[in-house]
Design goal:
The protein is of the alpha+beta class and 371 residues long. The chain has a domain at 13-75 and 201-263 and 289-367: 3-Layer(aba) Sandwich (Beta-lactamase), CATH 3.40.710. The protein is 30% helix and 17% strand. The radius of gyration is 19 Å and the shape is globular. The mean pLDDT is 97. This is CubicO group peptidase (Beta-lactamase class C family).
């Protein structure tokens, strides 16, 4: 039996959204495809537990039209899913987010890392942004633990905010296994994805049987990106950047967060856990990777009140929180309005294009909220 999608459809007008402004947003995406900035995309906007818009654009792969069933590489949008697993472990009493990582992952303290807390890890203050996990450790838990415990510090933990593209969330994956005995992919599926009834549309660790649904991730020159295009990469469920999903699945996930950890009567987190996670832990300190304050929460970042912000839209309410995927996507939720937004595309664009593009698309979505 097919499980119904957890967000029932509603018209934009029913949800206090301006249909004309949403059509203008869609036209902007179509214009970017026509200008060959990317070949395909998907957009979803939801509010108050209902889906106002879910539309696919262009091609998923050459000659293959993007459809509602297409799965898109989430890149770093995956970080919020992985972080949510730690939030859940904290509310279950398995750890405290103020604990040091080494308390739950013995051996991690080597090289001066013993005082790093989960808060510092998830807010990109841990001090090892350039550390990498080799492919041979993706499916070898003992090797993964050895690699992350051997990460070398580049600066004193807590002294800087600098985005960790992959390393911090590999540590989170190792902690999930150390604390639960379960692979992070299985833990996320069992505790977050399946309870939200998103198992057909959201994956951290993509089964090979789902590969025909995947949109190729391409470079600006049109070539397929590797290793992203390999089944090994898709299956690995890289915790900081390897998830796959539909835009409506990500809009639904953010609806759950906006709903205090519950969606359609199914709870994955407590309201207080979500509130704790989406606080601003880094104030207006600049993130040296992004060149601006990012107002880091424990997974997502927040709009805040600085003049500019990456991806969430210039006119967003200060409490809006979300995350992006490098050069290709952004997903967010706005607690003030109850709106969630997900834009996914299949080209890893330059930041010179992607940053302004996402500021424009997100701003247009916020401008469509009229009541």
């Amino acid at each position: 039996m097919t499980v119904p999608f957890p967000l029932p459809d509603a018209s934009p007008a029913e949800l206090g959204l301006d249909p004309g402004r949403l059509e203008a947003l869609c036209a902007r995406i179509e214009a970017d495809i026509a200008a060959e900035h990317h070949s395909g995309a998907q957009l979803a906007i939801a509010r108050h537990g209902r889906l106002a818009l879910h539309r696919s654009f262009g091609e998923a792969r050459p000659g293959v039209k993007a459809t509602a069933e297409t799965l898109w590489l989430l890149y770093s949008n995956t970080k919020v899913l992985t972080a949510a697993a730690l939030w859940l472990l904290a509310e279950r009493g398995a750890l405290r987010l103020s604990d040091t990582v080494a308390e739950h992952l013995p051996g991690f303290e080597t090289g001066g890392k013993g005082a790093i807390t989960f808060i510092e890890l998830l807010t990109h203050q841990a001090g090892f942004p350039s550390a990498e996990v080799p492919a041979e450790a993706w499916e070898d838990p003992a090797k993964l633990r050895e690699v992350v415990c051997d990460f070398s510090l580049e600066w004193a933990p807590g002294s800087l905010v600098r985005y960790h593209p992959a390393a911090a969330h590999w540590v989170a994956a190792a902690v999930i296994r150390a604390v639960t005995g379960e692979d992070h992919r299985a833990f996320l599926r069992r505790n977050i994805i399946e309870p939200l009834r998103l198992e057909r549309e959201l994956f951290v660790g993509l089964p090979e049987a789902e590969a025909p649904r995947v949109a190729d991730m391409r470079d600006v020159d049109g070539s397929v990106r590797m290793p992203e295009g390999s089944q090994a990469h898709r299956a690995a469920g890289i915790p900081g950047g390897g998830g796959y999903g539909t835009a409506r699945a990500m809009a639904a996930f953010y609806q759950a967060l906006l709903g205090g950890g519950a969606l359609a009567g199914r709870r994955i987190l407590s309201p207080r856990s979500v509130e704790y996670a989406v606080r601003n832990y880094t104030g207006d300190r600049p993130d040296e990777y992004n060149g601006m304050p990012m107002h880091r929460g424990l997974g997502p970042h927040l709009r805040g009140t600085t003049p500019a912000i990456r991806g969430l839209g210039a006119i967003a309410h200060p409490s809006t929180f979300g995350h992006g995927g490098v050069g290709s996507s952004y997903c967010w939720g706005d607690p003030a309005s109850g709106v969630s937004f997900a834009f996914l595309s299949n080209t890893r664009q330059s930041e010179e294009f992607h940053g302004p593009r996402m500021d424009t698309l997100s701003t247009m979505a916020h401008a469509a909220i009229i009541s």
